[in-house]
Amino acid sequence: MEEKKVRNIIDGTVIDHIKPNCAMKVLSVLRDIDHECIIVCINTDSKKHGRKDLIKIENKFLEEQEYNELALISPDATINIIKNGKRVSKEKVKTPKHIKGIGKCNNPRCVTNCQNMETEFDVISIKPTVLRCSYCESTAEYKG
Question: Using one digit for the tens of pLDDT, what is the confidence trace for 72-81?
């Protein structure tokens, strides 16, 4: 019988199949987790991908912007919603075609860097993740 390495949560979110060594990047984009129990597994075994990271967060359900940024950081991640100790849903993240308010344009002359404006990007590639600014059309690989 295989020993369980990580305990279950009662209510919350399990983010599985995160790219190895990217869990801390994912945690950095999550809000309102200061008082929640967070379990992080870094570089653990994965039958699908060889290695993976895993995050379990009690009493946390992702907001749209958090979900979108997770999809940019780790496009193969899966989201499991846990309620009353049981998984009620599981889905592979879907990378959006257009994102707002995430990241910074790499063009120093872009209007978003000169004025107090929210950034907007089109996602033009997923692996690697390449974004194009909706204002100046500058492109750059997303590093998270």
Answer: 999 999 999 9
